[in-house]
Amino acid sequence: MDSDTVTGETRRLAAVLAAQREAAASEVVPDLASRRTDLARLKAAIRAHRNDFVAVAREDFGRRPAEDTLILDIGPVVQGINHMHRHLGAWMRPERVPVPHTLWPGRAHIHRQPLGVVGIMAPWNYPFGLSLLPLATALAAGNRAMLKPSELAPASSRLLADLLADTFEATQVAVVEGGVETGTVFAGLPFDHLFFTGSTEVGRKVMRAAAENLVPVTLELGGKSPVLLARDADFAKAARDIAFGKVANAGQTCIAPDYVLVHEDDTKDFIARLKPEMARAAKIAGRRGGPAGIISARHAERLASLQEEARIGGAVVIETGEEGNVTPTIIIGLRPQMRLTREEIFGPLLPVVTYATMEEAIARIGSGPRPLALYLYTANRDLKGRVLRDTLSGNVTLNGVMTHYAVESLPFGGVGASGIGAYHGRAGFEAMSHAKGVFEEPRRSLIPFGRPGGRFVKLFARYMMR
Ligand code: NAD
């Protein structure tokens, strides 16, 4: 875009935001009933379009099994809406909190109120879920929202724009389609909150732009999520789960297992189980019109070059199936300087990394940027406790992969380079609300006596220093 177009784009988006603000100022703050109606309308629109989601996702990914779209992409949105619909009343009620004795019998409450207009920026990998769940959360918290879906899934973005335009007034929900330039303009708008899902690299730019307007951010970013297999791990289950994690959506999942840490004496055994599971998962997906394609030729080339670099560097590359434009592949013998060791993979390549001691495995996890998710397979309680204590990551699933995402009552988010803030359920409601502290002074209390110049000021001073 040249500078005239950028100015035009800025003006266009600023006008949408201004219209939303104006509406917010002139209309009453949505109460529980109207927020529930909004959630119900969104859910009804999603349900009515379920086949369209499957079809347009196929267009964007080239191939994508219906299940990847229904169960992993839009299913969690409907579940999330149900959860919010059920609990919203309790979350919205002012929350009474204790007061210090000196202020007794005053009362203190936290009131949660809408922030105003939330900007939502979404990635392409789950183009519906990662747009609509943040949107539902913004509406549950009583906000208006502008959504910018990803240009890499244009058919999905189009469907979202049409569906949301049919469901909501543009002064409540507006979709802005466009690429990086539009994203840059979008991130620079003076929202009341900016909710970004995408890469760490772009997240950094978005946060910088938001800082210009002091816009608070939630950043849902990526990273390398390890699977740690203890020696007592159920290898059969782990192999099946990991194969699912790498084949579902062709491994293009933010919380997909990125690599596996296996004890050096178990490696052979584990790989012997993993190989057929990877092939099986790909074959099953293949029968259902998948596995999902890699989103673009550029992304497929990137994955191929990661694999090629490892091969040239002496790693062993085991391809496990024919399906897919990048085949599910196991890679053994990575070196520290290889890109597969350093970069988030985001595709169906699975490095298997060996460790000699648990200390070494934990230290390896701690030596990189904080992962978005961590998976541990063990039946040993002490070891679970130890790994939970000694590693810092986003969420954890024990003896499984990715399932924590579906637990709406868990805050979902990263830490460090994998993100800032969290959402899902109550955590999302709170992230998109202002927590206003309200204290009401009682008619009679000790408060006037304890102020500077008051009768009991010495007593108070002593009491407060106690
Ligand atoms: P991305 O960061 O390239 O794009 C995300 C959004 O930002 C898109 O809407 C894009 O148009 C926009 N954008 C791109 N460049 C921009 C710029 N310079 N300024 C402003 N906006 C810009 O991410 P992606 O490739 O779409 O998604 C993959 C990444 O997202 C992976 O790293 C993955 O781990 C992460 N991710 C995280 C989560 C999570 O919940 N934490 C979920 C899905 C994906």
TrEMBL record:
The text of the family note is:
Belongs to the aldehyde dehydrogenase family.
UniProt cross-references to Pfam families, sorted A to Z = Aldedh
Could you identify this protein by its name?
A: Aldehyde dehydrogenase
Catalytic residues, per the record, are E220
Give the record's keywords alphabetically: NAD, Oxidoreductase
- Domain of life, source organism: Bacteria
PANTHER family for the chain: ALDEHYDE DEHYDROGENASE (PTHR43570), ALDEHYDE DEHYDROGENASE ALDX-RELATED (PTHR43570:SF20)
